[in-house]
Design goal:
Low-confidence stretches of chain B: 4-19
Largest interface: A-B, 35 and 39 residues
CATH topology of the largest domain in chain B: Cytochrome-c3 Hydrogenase, chain B
Number of helices of chain B: 16
Structural class of chain B: alpha+beta
CATH topology of the largest domain in chain A: Rossmann fold
Structural class of chain A: mainly alpha
Shape of chain A: globular
Helix content of chain B: 40-55%
Strand order of the largest sheet of chain B: 1-2-3
Strand content of chain B: 5-15%
Largest sheet of chain A: 3 strands, parallel
Oligomer: heterodimer
Low-confidence stretches of chain A: none
Order of helices and strands of chain B: HEEEHHHHHEEHHHHHHEEEHHHH
Number of domains of chain A: 2
Number of strands of chain B: 8
Helix content of chain A: 40-55%
Mean pLDDT of chain B: 86
């Protein structure tokens, strides 16, 4: 009985407090407004402009996990030139949108990868490059690796191959761009 | 008017001596997410701008390859052995097949030996070009990133014609090689190496004779001859310190005894001389490739070898792009080895990282560190 009484006393005090009532009403109103903004942004033209900007500025973060980095390097180089898709490796986590997981993920590296993923600003995308990042690949029975990137980060595109050719990585970038083009603005990353 | 006070230096030599208190120094973690580290971490302690302590933290790419080798038969191990350094895969593979052949007592036909040497030298160029491109981008020279990677494709195309794969070939098998030369390969090789040698002159003009590079590399990261020998360095790092040591000459294997080439050494031991050793080796490799396609004898390319490792012990080593790569192999009669110890060039050169960095400025770290050509995947295995 005592507990019930004190609870009801609290409730009446809150109801009578005009500031709290106003703040509550305001937050509901702001919430409704932000829902409205989201709905407006997700309509055709505005969404297209935002997605267009996101599609062609996929900056991958400077993290290499294993030997597929050689083919990532070749893809960034003169013949394949990933920069024509808007892919420019960048050192700063705050300005990057993409992690390309290049090959085998050891247990030691998996923790760091998750930390890097958590530090990146939304929206963020993940490409798992190579068989090892998909399922462990050639090293599936090793004692020190994680069998697949999906065990600790959500993956957008998988690129099979050991190592994948640069053309396969280009295709993955194009697939990711297509995915961004079709998805809603607030549901990405 | 009195004279302005003398500027007080932020860092003095004396302050490094009292750095044990921990108050004057700052510890930085460089890597693994860093544009200048790769798949490893360097724990760098700086006093002002001067590096006073370096602790490499390897193991980010340790995949337990020595254990995996024990679980697979000697042919299935070949792709696993190539992976630590896929930009230099055939050289690592060569050390493996040499140690197996030593236990089995299999003699490789001469044409097979020449084809092995051909792919090894192409791999050496590809590996050095990859190293050079990363060196360029570390120093903020984007042209030197694009050019070597573009020219690397010349050799990748040739290797793809020869073996069927871009960088991971699995071309060397116990007893010989998998494929013979494709038609028209010799003319193509001569054409491409001659073109590449012209490109190397342009590299000299834009990068190696450029004050942008020379002022940052000369006298930076000095590794003396005695120190290099004491630390057990190998490959271009050792030759850059003036030691004439190259397994291709000292302990000739495959077709190297019949080929004419020179071992490049530079006496200074700084970043610049290590870089120039790489450049010289690319020139020599071009010469070797042209000699091979001219002198290659006719005959079989492969002799039948059993997929059995007889009881015995072998030590096979080759000169890979980053130094000596060796296998210590124990067979027990089955198709799997009892134990395989796998030592690569980068693993041995890891000891040189603190030696070249200590006492330098933090801004010189990329120049000094990457000049050792340390490939973490190869070192961790």
């Amino acid at each position: 009985m005592v507990v019930e009484g004190s609870l009801s006393a609290q409730r009446t005090a809150q109801e009578e407090d005009p500031v709290a009532t106003l703040a509550e009403g305001l937050s509901i109103w702001v919430g409704k407004l932000s829902d409205l903004v989201k709905r407006v942004v997700d309509t055709g033209p505005i969404r297209n402009v935002i997605n267009w900007a996101r599609m062609y500025s996929l900056w991958p973060v400077n993290i290499t996990t294993a030997c597929c980095s050689a083919e990532f390097g070749a893809a960034s180089g003169a013949r394949h030139d990933l920069e024509r898709f808007g892919v420019l490796p960048i050192g700063s986590l705050r300005q990057s949108d993409l992690i390309v997981i290049e090959g085998t993920i050891t247990k030691k590296m998996a923790k760091r990868l998750r930390m890097i993923y958590d530090q990146m600003a939304l929206p963020r995308y993940v490409i798992a490059m190579g068989d090892c990042a998909m399922s462990g690949g050639l090293f599936h029975d090793s004692y020190s690796i994680v069998n697949g990137a999906h065990e600790f980060v959500p993956v957008d595109v998988y690129v099979p191959g050991c190592p994948p050719r640069p053309e396969a990585l280009e295709q993955a970038i194009i697939m990711l761009q297509e995915k961004i083009r079709r998805s809603k603005v607030y549901e990405q990353g | 008017m009195s004279a302005p006070p003398k500027p007080v230096p932020l860092t003095t030599v004396e302050s490094t001596e009292t750095s044990d208190s921990g108050a004057q120094t700052l510890t930085l973690s460089v890597g693994p997410q860093h544009s200048g580290s790769g798949h490893m971490r360097l724990i760098v302690e700086v006093d002002g701008d001067i590096i006073v302590n370096v602790a490499p933290d390897p193991g980010y790419v340790h995949r337990g390859i020595e254990k995996i080798i024990e679980l697979r038969n000697i042919i299935k191990s070949i792709p696993v052995i190539e992976r630590p350094s896929i930009i230099d895969s055939s050289n690592l593979n060569h050390a493996w097949v040499r140690s197996i052949e030593e236990i089995q007592g299999v003699e490789v036909p001469r044409r097979g030996q020449y084809l092995r040497t051909l792919l090894n030298e192409m791999n050496r160029i590809m590996s050095h070009l990859y190293w050079l491109s990363i060196y360029g981008v570390f120093l903020g020279h984007t042209t030197m990133f694009m050019w070597p990677l573009g020219d690397r494709e010349l050799f990748i195309d040739m290797a793809e014609k020869l073996t069927g794969a871009r960088i991971t070939y699995s071309y060397l098998v116990p007893g010989g090689v998998r494929r013979d030369l494709p038609p028209g390969f010799a003319e193509e090789a001569v054409k491409r190496t001659e073109y590449f040698e012209k490109r190397l002159k342009e590299y000299d003009r834009i990068f190696f004779n450029n004050p942008l590079f020379t002022s940052r590399a000369k006298g930076i990261g000095v590794l003396s001859k005695e120190k290099a020998i004491e630390l057990g360095c190998t490959g271009p790092t050792l030759r850059g310190s003036g030691v004439d040591a190259d397994l291709r000459k000292d302990e000739p294997y495959a077709a190297y005894p019949e080929l004419d080439f020179e071992v490049s050494t530079r006496p200074d031991g700084d970043s610049f001389s290590r870089a120039m050793v790489h450049m010289d080796e690319m020139r020599e490799s071009c010469k070797i490739i042209r000699q091979i396609v001219k002198k290659i004898p006719a005959g079989p390319i492969r002799r039948k070898a059993p997929i059995v490792l007889p009881r015995g012990v072998a030590y096979g080593r080759v000169e890979s792009a980053r130094g000596e790569c060796s296998f210590y192999l124990i067979g027990e009669g089955g198709d799997k080895p009892y134990r395989a110890r796998y030592i690569t060039g980068s693993y041995r050169n890891m000891a040189a990282i603190p030696a070249v960095l200590l006492g330098n400025r933090l801004a010189d770290m990329p120049t000094a560190w990457w000049s050792i050509d340390y490939w973490p995947v190869e070192a961790d295995r």
